[in-house]
Amino acid sequence: MNRKAESGSRMAKVPPAYRNSPARTESWRGPIERLAWAGKGVGRSEDGRLLLLEAPLALFPGEVVEAEVIWKARHGEGRVTRWVTRDPRRAEAACPVAEICGGCELWESGRHAPELKRLMTADLLRRQLGEGVPWSWHPAPELARRHRIQLHWDGAALGYFRRHSHALVPVSACPAAAEPLSEAIPRLQAAILGRMLPTRPGRWELSTGTPAQTVWATDERGRTWVLEPDGWQRNAEPIRHQLGETALLHEPGAFFQVSPPWAAEAFGDLLRSWNLKGDTLYDLFGGVGFFSALLGDRFRHRVLVESGETAVVWARRNLEAAGRPSDCLVADVAAWVPEGLGSPEDVILLDPPRAGLEPALCDRLLTANAGTLVLVGCDGAAFCRDLKRLASAWQLEQLAMLDLFPLTTHVEGVAMMTRRP
Fold it and tell me: CB of 218 within 8 A of CB of 198?
């Protein structure tokens, strides 16, 4: 369907809101007043109740839409089924499955995606932290692409999950991925169909290094193949990311930044502008040493703590190769952090999983003696929650939001806090 067709044209059929819910759905039509966190459009019922709407494509404030809605006591929730009027800034989606694929939410936003993400981020921060909290916005460069994608093989086709479903959307390319990854998708499917790779249904990860060249494929069992000119060959070599003067290596299939070149640039510039330095850097949830490598020359000593044993092995190798040997420890961070951690010249940096900090860990951080704490978070709600939990002992000095996940509604938060007297 041509998305530039007249404003009243119908989209592909969208499942009704909350299909498995016993609540009755109703049709709603009205304008999008503003964007809320996660790209949800905010509308309003005739009696004034707020309505949160999700959509298969980006929403612009001011657009008029139709939706299937479930009304609750104080608000409504629903899904957009049709655009009545479309913002003239909309652009043709570069992805042929944009309306049904669950991988990206901001197709048709075009070059205005960073601005839409800034609006939804501003709404979150205003509601969670208050009107007067200053923050900076760091949009992704236009050419930032993913260096890791996860595909699913169902026994017949390879693709992504459909939005709100485990049904497969077959794909032969992915415009959100680095070009070598996108080009490798049909070769991966052909190798599975030809029984040159395992045929059992499951998840596959395609990943590449920096710069994006060689492609690795990793199955659910952790077995890895590298794409050679003559096909996929078993390979246990690590993935290498050359980020400025620093090289970071990790095993295929392991967690790493989604868009490493942009992440290194964004974090590096930001933390240098904050003049982050000191005696000891406590790099907690440190992975393979990303932050210790970025900041290593600004600290006399580094202590990296990570629960993944293999990640710690690579962190130790990476930091030694960079001339920044560190104490790299395998431990659960929440259990490892003691009361009164650090001294006034030290910095604690935490990059926890999406769920954020455990309450017990927050409690121990409230007693820390370090002079500075840096919190990184990839889930906006959990990030704001943790900032508020820490506020009784830590004063927020700097707050930045980074668009490290282009074409999605996800944003990375970074906060620098100083110890209250």
Answer: no
* Residue showing tokens 């007693």: 367
Q: Domain segments of the chain: what residues?
A: 26-98, 136-141+259-419, 148-243
Q: Residue 103 — very low, low, confident or very high, per pLDDT cuts 50/70/90?
A: confident
pLDDT at 15: 44
Record the tokens describing residue 144, joined without a space. 């930032």
Q: Are 290 and 378 in contact (CB under 8 A)?
A: no
Helix, strand or coil for residue 191?
Answer: helix
Task: Classify domain 136-141+259-419 at the CATH topology level.
Answer: Rossmann fold (3.40.50)
Q: Quick one: tokens of 208?
A: 């590449």
Structural element, H or E, at residue 161: strand 158-161
- The strand pairing partners of 377, in sequence order, are 413
- Mean residue pLDDT across the chain: 93
pTM for the model stands at: 0.91
Token pair for 212:
């994006």
Q: Assess contact for 59 and 36: CB atoms under 8 A.
A: no
Residue type, 207: S
Rounded-to-integer distance, Cα 140 and Cα 137, Å:
10
Q: Is the dihedral of CA 201, 407, 379, 281 positive or negative?
A: positive
At the top level of CATH, the class of 26-98 is mainly beta
Distance CA 93, CA 212 (A): 24
Give residue 162's pLDDT.
93
pLDDT value of residue 193: 97
- Laid out side by side, the sheet with 158-161 consists of 168-170, 158-161, 148-153, 202-208, 215-219, 224-228, 231-234
Alpha helices by DSSP H, listed for 101-153, are 113-129
Query: Strands (DSSP E) along 130-200, which ranges?
Result: 136-138, 148-153, 158-161, 168-170
What is the edge-to-edge ordering of all strands in the sheet holding 50-54?
Answer: 26-31, 64-71, 75-85, 50-54, 41-44, 34-35
